[in-house]
TrEMBL record:
It comes from Bacillus cereus. Coiled coil: none annotated. Signal peptide: none annotated. Residues 1-64 form the NAD-dependent epimerase/dehydratase domain. It holds the Pfam family Epimerase. This is NAD-dependent epimerase/dehydratase family protein. InterPro entries: Epimerase_deHydtase.
Length: 78
């Protein structure tokens, strides 16, 4: 078997069968604590701003890139 842990920021999609954690992925301290608490063996990261056309030029892309790098760094050191 396996356990699936997922994050949400605003609305808990509790109808999906997994362990939900309220985490703002743009906050490094919350990401670090989440990774420390869960100790995942695998990571699938799909969070990003993807609403065209704003996503093509949004400054949020920079924040998501920075957050993604941090998430991977915390994951590889847990």
């Amino acid at each position: 078997g396996y356990e699936v842990h997922a994050t949400y920021n605003k609305n808990n999609p509790s109808h999906l069968p997994c362990h939900w954690h309220k985490v703002n992925l743009l906050r490094d301290d919350e990401v670090k604590q989440f990774i420390y608490d869960v100790q995942p063996s695998h990571l699938i990261h799909l969070a990003w701003e993807a609403a065209p056309p704003a996503c093509y030029v949004s400054i949020n892309n920079y924040y998501w890139l920075k957050s993604s790098i941090s998430l991977i760094q915390h994951f590889t050191t847990c």
